[in-house]
Write a sequence for this structure.
């Protein structure tokens, strides 16, 4: 049986690459993204009534993993990257069918460039992610208070984030165009996006990632992520 899925929209987010994208939705709650609806789904009638829901489910494709190999077991970061579980007992993007699910906050639905856009908050999606379906989030059935979370039963432990004097200068310079930049960086790096195996011991490596139209560089100073530089791409 062959099933063909057609994207109904595409995500525009500050995350320009997979590295440092929050590992779950809502972990960077203030970061905004836009979902641009594609024709013929960019008409108001498709979304009549959705504005009354505070949150929605996004069903999406891990498009950067299409055609890549997957394995029956994976090493979740929450287990330190050194213990395997079944791929279906994880949220690994490397799956037989690379489909993901995220619950995000719906801020508004508006017209833009003769099209329709959903403004979202808390998305964990890389820029350009294709969306294949949208469903309203139902608090009475989607939030189960007695559910068990196995190895991910609690929120990840956050680390401190600080900025070098040079980075502080850039934050001030960029404030008119990127007013949420400081908060975005803190929420992103506080989750310690480094590979799980680097989470212990001394780490002298420098890291870099692209967000918005910027290059971000940081390194670990003990248990603190120190942002050393912010520069235009």
């Amino acid at each position: 049986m062959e099933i063909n899925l057609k994207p109904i929209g595409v995500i525009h987010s500050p995350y320009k690459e997979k590295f440092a994208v929050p590992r779950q939705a809502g972990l960077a709650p203030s970061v905004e993204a836009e979902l641009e609806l594609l024709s013929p789904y960019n008409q108001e009638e498709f979304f009549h009534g959705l504005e009354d829901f505070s949150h929605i489910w996004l069903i999406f494709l891990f498009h950067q993993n299409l055609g890549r190999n997957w394995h029956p077991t994976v090493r979740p970061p929450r287990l330190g990257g050194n213990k395997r579980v079944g791929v279906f007992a994880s949220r690994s993007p490397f799956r037989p069918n690379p489909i993901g699910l995220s619950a995000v906050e719906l801020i508004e639905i508006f017209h833009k460039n003769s099209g329709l856009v959903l403004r979202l908050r808390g998305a964990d999606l890389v820029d350009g992610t294709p969306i294949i379906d949208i469903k309203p989030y139902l608090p009475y059935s989607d939030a189960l208070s007695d559910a068990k979370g196995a190895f991910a039963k609690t929120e990840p432990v956050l680390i401190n984030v600080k900025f070098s004097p040079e980075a502080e200068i850039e934050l001030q310079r960029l404030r008119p165009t990127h007013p949420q930049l400081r908060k975005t960086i803190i929420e992103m790096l506080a989750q310690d996006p480094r590979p799980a195996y680097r989470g212990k011991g001394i780490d002298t490596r420098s890291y870099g990632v692209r967000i918005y139209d910027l290059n971000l560089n940081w390194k670990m100073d003990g248990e603190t992520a120190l942002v050393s530089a912010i520069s235009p791409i």
In short: The chain has a mean pLDDT of 91. The CA atoms of residues 20 and 103 lie 19 Å apart.
